[in-house]
Amino acid sequence: SRGPVACVPSPGPFAVPMGASVSKLAEVKPKKICCACPITKLARDACLPENGEEKCRYLIEAHLRCLRDEGFEV
Q1: Confidence band (pLDDT; 50, 70, 90) for 31?
Q2: SS3 state of residue 39
Q3: What does the angle CA 66 – CA 72 – CA 74 come to, to the nearest 5 degrees?
Q4: In this model, does residue 29 exceed pLDDT 80?
Q5: Apex CA 30: angle with CA 73 and CA 60, to 5°?
Q6: How buried is residue 70: exposed, middle or buried, by Cβ count under 10 Å (0-12/13-18/19+)?
Q7: CA distances from 1 to 36, 56, 58 (A)
Q8: pLDDT given for residue 4 in this prediction
Q9: Within 13 Å and on the Cβ side, how many CA atoms surround 4?
Q10: CA distance 62 to 58
């Protein structure tokens, strides 16, 4: 049985890298939703084909929570 997957929050989709100047701020691109939360996405995607949506609900919810923590509206 698989336990819940922790979502480690990152600085967010609009984070500015350390040492970036204010003039570079406009050049920072937001993170794409497909690239956010790779750990919870992988766990969810591995669970679904084998166990179905009902048994993987906790992983689906963990992934959605992680995406929200990253600043996405899901």
Answers
A1: confident
A2: helix
A3: 80
A4: no
A5: 40
A6: buried
A7: 25, 11, 12
A8: 55
A9: 11
A10: 6
Instruction: Single out the residue of 62, 45, 69 nearest to residue 3, CA to CA.
Output: 62
Distance CA 14, CA 53 (A): 31
Cβ(74)–Cβ(16) below 8 Å: no
* Residue 68 structure tokens: 């929200």
pTM flag (> 0.85): no
CB proximity list for 34: less than 8 A, separation 6 or greater: none
DSSP 56: T
Helix (H) or strand (E) holding 61: helix 57-69
How far apart CA 39 and CA 52 sit, in angstroms, is 19
